[in-house]
Amino acid sequence: MLELKDLHGGYGKITILNGVNFVIPKASITTVIGPNGAGKSTVFKAIFGLLNIHSGQVLLDGQDVTRASPAQMIGHGVTYVPQGRNVIPQLSVWHNLELGGITSPDQARVRARMEEVMDQFPMLRQRRNQKAIELSGGQQKQLEIARALLLDPRLILIDEPSIGLSPNLVQEVFATLIRLRDQGVTVLMVEQNAKAALAMSDYGLVLELGQTRMHDRAETLLADPRVGHLFLGGHIEEG
Amino acid sequence: MSQFLQVLLSGLSTGSIYALAAIGFTLVWQAAQTVNFAQGEFVMLPAFFVLIGIHWLHMPLWLALIFGLIVAVIVLGLLFKKLIVEPMLPNGGLPLIIATMALSILLKEGTKQFYGAEAQPYPSLFPQTTLHMDGAVVSVQDLLNLVVSLTIVVALTLFLNRTRTGRCMQATAQNPAVAEILGVNTKRMVLYTFLINAALAALASFLISPVYLAKFSNGETLGLVAFIAAIVGGFNQIRGALAGGLLIGVLDNLTATYVTTEYRAALPLVLLIVIILWRPQGLLGTSEGRKV
Ligand SMILES: Nc1ncnc2c1ncn2[C@@H]1O[C@H](COP(=O)(O)OP(=O)(O)OP(=O)(O)O)[C@@H](O)[C@H]1O
Ligand SMILES: [Mg+2]
């Protein structure tokens, strides 16, 4: 569904990605893990057209979308929830949600989807007229996820959704992602909370120093002692 | 009492015109981190575009006003953004500030060379008559200036809050990175902000010039007042800039009438110092500031 072929890229002249390769199948959840600074978030930016790509390819269902702009990626059915806080602080919850469909020519459909998405996240309906900045961190994250679902994406890139969320909310977010997967959406996620994330994922991907180190079924990675070692801050030994 | 009302109205009237310039100033600051030190000249110049329309192109006033507005939007909006802000911004804030200072001198001296140093009579938009209401004598021009400026502010606020384009402009100003990943055409939104600023400056120019006459040096006070009104208002919101503009206009007129005209020019500066000491986040501002 999504394929990265020997992707090299970085910020300006600084190279961060040194050959990222993977293929992820449709309607699956893949978790990317790796040490801090490995380039996990950078891979997402590369896919979403926010990075200087030096060489390599990004393919979406076989179509070359390398260097497509964020607006074009949205047009291809990809949405992105970056790390950290990503709301428009002074706009209402409702208007933040609306921005998730801003590229769509069919605004009547966007309205309808806003109602549907608020059914999934009832908190948003209760607070629809509040400014986004007034929401708690967890509520803001829910708003961001809801916003990313507005245009029925086929692929959702979600970077560390659990940061700042209570364990209950993390379970809720994971449940949402599983439901999406069951509806046919492909999920690519970065998660610090690697054990819990791999446990609910189909596939896992280990990234180190801007390269794919391991890519396997999630349960295989969970059982791999090298991955366990990595969680404790170590590196994967060659060979 | 009736004199007080008159002074108050005329203060609100000039104050609302200052507010137009101050609002443009804050919009451009928010959208492009540009502190435009030529803002005063942006208000000075469009009146001369109108005079060119009248004197050189022999246009009737209404046409000259439209001509002035269009030229202002192109020169002070589009060209300002493309030729000065875009090339300078990547070098950081300071070079851009210096560039706008240089531009302010260029516009001022250019106008002086081109149109002369004397104040040019400038056609009034409204009848120069007075209304007698309950013993108070009210200038029709003051009243209409206030009504027109406030209408412009209300229209702008409605545009920014009630239209999708307006909300995309707000999103771009408040969090450009997020606006971009949502597919907002952020470059275009920033451009709109510059065009709106130029239009606001032009409208302020058309309203204030019948009062001050068109003079190359008008921008000195106007720019300072707009800057101070923006800071007084908290620098990042429309209603703050509006309140700041009105406050300066009223205080200015009250001191000139009841205290002295001698220190009139110093008043906005005194106000600035008081506000910075007492409420550094601005009159209506909140301390959360800008999230980058
Ligand atoms: N905007 C930027 N400009 C320059 N370098 C950057 C930028 N963003 C990240 N980097 C660098 O790129 C490298 C990879 O960063 P990235 O954010 O992708 O790591 P990560 O794997 O997501 O880490 P974390 O677990 O901390 O989120 C780091 O060395 C970082 O310093
Ligand atoms: Mg990261």
Task: Give short descriptive properties of this protein.
heterodimer, A: 239 residues, alpha/beta, six-stranded mixed beta sheet, four-stranded antiparallel beta sheet, 10 strands, globular, B: 292 residues, mainly alpha, ABC transporter involved in vitamin B12 uptake, BtuC, two-stranded antiparallel sheet, 11 helices, disordered C terminus, binds adenosine-5'-triphosphate, binds magnesium ion
Mean pLDDT over the residues of chain A:
92
* The CATH class of chain B: Mainly Alpha
Query: What's the CATH architecture of chain B?
Result: Orthogonal Bundle
Describe the global form of chain B: globular
Q: What is the fold-level CATH name, i.e. the topology of chain B?
A: ABC transporter involved in vitamin B12 uptake, BtuC
Class computed from helices, strands and strand pairing of chain B? mainly alpha
Alpha carbon gyration radius of chain A: 18 Å
Number of strands of chain A: 10
Overall strand count of chain B: 2
Strand content of chain A: 25-35%
List the ions, cofactors and other small molecules found in this model.
adenosine-5'-triphosphate, magnesium ion
- What is the string of SSEs of chain B from the N terminus onward? HHHHEEHHHHHHH
Enumerate how many helices of chain A there are, as a single number: 10
Distance between the termini of chain B: 49 Å
Question: Main sheet of chain B, how many strands, which sense, barrel?
Answer: 2 strands, antiparallel
Task: Give the CA-CA distance, first to last residue of chain A.
Answer: 29 Å
Rough outline of chain A: globular
Low-confidence stretches of chain A: none
